[in-house]
Each structure stands twice: as structure tokens, then as C-alpha cells.
Design brief:
It is built from 18 helices and two strands. With 436 residues, it is mostly helical. The chain is globular.
């Protein structure tokens, strides 16, 4: 395949890799998101206090952050495929335990286990994208992978809520665990082993490698960019539905329209953002889209009572601009690390991602309040200004990031051209592409 390692279209094998990774991401995202709107049912079924329910939600994030740091020390010791499959098995076991939990302590433990494995899955998926796709086509692949989030918003969460309302809150988790089994076997068949990085891994104390990963100047710049991305989004996005109902006047039954339309726009916009990033430069596209996201934050956090159509339009623009900036940013972050360090780096990056998201929500929670008179959400514009300032800071941080593999040496394995043509299998392609 002549264009396999250049800027041409994806080969069938590459498309299959993206499809498998997106399917795994879909199950992981739905599992993470569906627990929050199931809150009222969980509180009734287990007689939970608000603090206990918050602990159930937070346990996933904290476990994901801790697991990301542990993964940084050990993940690059293993080939990508077996590591990815082991993480997915652990995630499915945790999801199944969520569906079987009957008490608060059991559910808390199940959410912690699910987060420990699920939180690292996203970083491992990005590591595989970084290994399979060369830098000049990584934006397109990242955009396609991130479409799983849009699909989860449009299809996964509404279906999960319907199952929960009709058959009990456990059913979404049981269905996700069952859905994951065929995806697991497909992943084992479709993913290449991707073990070329093992020949160049750095031996030594894992804690020393963790320290080296965390203090590397370019890694620090990437972590800072990721922190601003997540902090800026999660100061506002978790409270948007409350604001739309209490302040804008949208009925609770109308909220799904906002998220479904936003998800559909994101599903279309993410791949487009990836293509433009590959064609015109990832930094340039990020610097074009991020200010638009900041503008939509300003609009959405100051939105007065408006018709449903206007609220849907604002929410859709906010969601698609958020995804549009995340695609080139994630592609730049993935390209900022040497291939043999990518798995560990992205594990640490996943930890930063989850911790920054939690911090954003916590800061917003300390500022926001409800009016005792009419129940409206107070100080949301202030939270919006914090989000905007963080987003503008990210423009400067993105410009300081440096690419570590703009011209990767393993074009053969990255494109999987030989494997796609059937002349060699994927494992042989890795060996053939390895420099002497």
C-alpha cells in the first residue's frame, strides 16, 4: 500500500484497529457517565445520602488517577496488545461487580475496581494510536477514536438510562459487561502485538522511571496542557444541566435533546477536526477552535431564559467546540513523547486528566450555590470566567509543546501497510520495521 505510511487514507486493517479501540472506549465512557444520571434511583434503592453518592462517583476518578501513576512505572514493560486486553478484562469484571452489587460498600468497591482499570484503558488506547499511526495521520485517527464519546452521549447513556428505569439500576452495567465479551475477543484478534518499544525500554527502578516521566520538561508541558483542558471543561460542564433547568427554564424531560444534538454534532465534528489538524497543523487548528470554546463557555454560563431550540443550539456548539479542541490537543500530547515511553507517559497523563477533572468540579462546587428563594444556580458566570481564563492559558501552553516523533522511524508498523496487504502479519511487520 503506497500511501500506507504517508498522508493517504486508512487501510482496512487500520480502520479495524480504530473500530476496536472505539468500541472499548464506548463501553468505558458509558460505564463512567451512566452512574451520574442513575443517582436518584441509587439513592432510593440503597438509601444513600448525597455524600455517599458523591463518594461512589468520585471513587472511579480517584482510582483512575492512582492506577494511572502505577501504570506509568510498569506499562511499558509489556507489549501493547496483552496489556490492553488485561486492562479490558479487569474493567469488565469491575463493571459486572457493579451490576451484582447489592450494598453501598460493595458498589463503592466495584466502582473503585472499574476505575482502576477503566481509567488506564483510555491512555493505553492513545498509546496504540501513537504506535500504529504516524504523526501526520494521528489527528485523523484521534478524531475517529474520540467519536466514541459522541456515540456514548447520543446512544449509550440514553439506552442505559432506559434500561435502568425499566429493569433496575443494575441492568446497564450487566448489559455493558455482556457487550464487552465479544469486543474482548475481537480486540485479541484485530490488534497487532505492538512490542517494538520493548527493545528500547529503559531498565531500572520503576520509581526512578516514574520520576523521569513526571519531571521531563516536555512531559511537564504536556501534563500542564492536559490539566488546563480538563479543569477548564469540568468547572462548567457537570453543572450545565442544573443551570439549564433552574435558570434557563428547560424542562428535565427536554434535557436529552440538548445532549443528543450535541453528541450528533460532535460525532461529525471530531473527525473533521482531526482531518483539518493533519492537513493544516494541530497547533493551528487548536488555536482556532479553543477561543470559540471559550466564547461558548461565556454564552452558556450567562444564558437567560430562552426557547428550547436556542438552548439546544448553544449546548451543541459548546460540545462540538470542546471536542474540536480536544482532538488536536490529544494528538499533540500523544506526539510529545518518545515511542518507547508512550505507554507509561499516557498512563501518567490519564492520572493528570482525572485529577484535573475532579479539581475542576471541586472548585466549581465551592463557588456555586442555590438560591433559597427560587432554587436558581448562583455564581455560574464566575465559574465560567475561571473556565475561560484556563482555556486561554492553554493556548500559550499548547505553543510550548514540542513533538518528539514528528518523523517516526517505524512507518511500516505504524501504517500496518504490509499487514493490511497480507504479505506479512502485524507482528512480522514490527520486526521488519525495527531499525538494525
Amino acid at each position: 500500500m503506497a500511501d500506507g505510511s504517508s498522508g493517504g487514507s486508512m487501510s482496512p486493517r487500520e480502520r479495524l484497529v480504530i473500530l476496536v479501540l472505539a468500541a472499548v472506549q464506548f463501553t468505558s465512557i458509558v460505564d463512567f457517565m451512566v452512574i451520574m444520571p442513575l443517582g436518584p434511583q441509587l439513592e432510593r434503592a440503597m438509601n444513600l445520602s448525597p455524600a455517599q453518592f458523591s463518594a461512589i462517583v468520585a471513587s472511579y476518578t480517584y482510582a483512575a488517577g492512582l492506577a494511572g501513576l502505577v501504570a506509568t512505572m510498569v506499562i511499558d514493560k509489556f507489549a501493547r496488545r496483552p496489556a490492553f486486553l488485561a486492562l479490558f478484562v479487569g474493567f469488565l469484571v469491575g463493571t459486572l461487580m457493579c451490576g451484582l452489587a447489592t450494598t453501598y460498600p460493595l458498589l463503592l468497591a466495584a466502582r473503585f475496581l472499574t476505575g482502576a482499570f477503566g481509567g488506564v484503558l483510555g491512555g493505553m488506547a492513545m498509546a496504540i494510536v501513537g504506535d500504529v499511526f504516524p504523526e501526520e495521520r494521528r489527528g485523523r485517527a484521534t478524531g475517529a477514536l474520540m467519536s466514541a464519546f459522541a456515540l456514548a452521549s447520543v446512544f449509550g447513556v440514553p439506552v442505559g438510562l432506559t434500561l435502568g428505569q425499566n429493569y433496575g439500576w443494575q441492568m446497564p452495567f450487566l448489559v455493558l459487561a455482556a457487550l464487552g465479551v465479544p469486543i474482548l475477543f475481537l480486540s485479541g484478534w484485530a490488534l497487532p502485538r505492538l512490542d517494538a518499544h520493548l527493545g528500547r525500554r529503559v531498565e531500572g527502578d520503576p520509581l526512578v522511571r516514574l520520576k523521569e516521566t513526571l519531571i521531563h520538561p516536555n512531559h511537564l508541558r504536556a501534563f500542564a496542557l492536559m490539566a488546563t483542558l480538563m479543569f477548564g471543561a469540568f468547572t462548567v460542564i457537570p453543572s450545565l444541566s442544573i443551570y439549564l433547568v433552574a435558570n434557563v427554564g428547560i424542562k428535565e424531560g427536554q434535557l436529552p435533546f440538548c445532549y443528543i444534538v450535541g453528541g450528533l454534532l460532535t460525532m461529525v465534528g471530531s473527525p473533521i477536526s482531526g482531518r483539518f489538524a493533519d492537513r493544516h497543523g494541530k497547533l493551528k487548528v487548536y488555536r482556532l477552535v479553543a477561543p470559540f470554546f471559550a466564547l461558548m463557555i461565556l454564552v452558556s454560563t450567562n444564558l437567560p431564559p430562552v426557547p428550547l431550540a436556542v438552548a439546544v443550539l448553544v449546548m451543541g456548539a459548546l460540545m462540538v467546540s470542546n471536542a474540536g479542541r480536544m482532538v488536536p490537543a490529544m494528538a499533540m500530547i500523544t506526539s510529545s513523547v518518545e515511542p518507547h515511553q508512550r505507554g507509561g507517559f499516557l498512563g501518567a497523563n490519564s492520572a493528570v486528566q482525572h485529577i484535573a477533572a475532579g479539581m475542576g468540579a471541586s472548585v466549581a462546587g465551592m463557588i456555586l450555590a442555590k438560591s433559597p428563594i427560587d432554587g436558581k444556580l448562583l455564581h455560574f458566570p464566575t465559574v465560567g470566567l475561571i473556565s475561560i481564563a484556563t482555556t486561554l492559558l492553554s493556548l500559550w501552553l499548547a505553543g510550548r509543546l514540542r513533538l518528539a516523533d514528528a518523523s517516526p522511524p517505524m512507518d511500516l508498523v505504524h501504517s500496518l501497510a504490509a499487514a493490511a496487504e497480507g504479505t506479512v502479519d502485524a507482528d512480522e511487520a514490527v520486526v521488519m520495521a525495527e531499525p538494525a
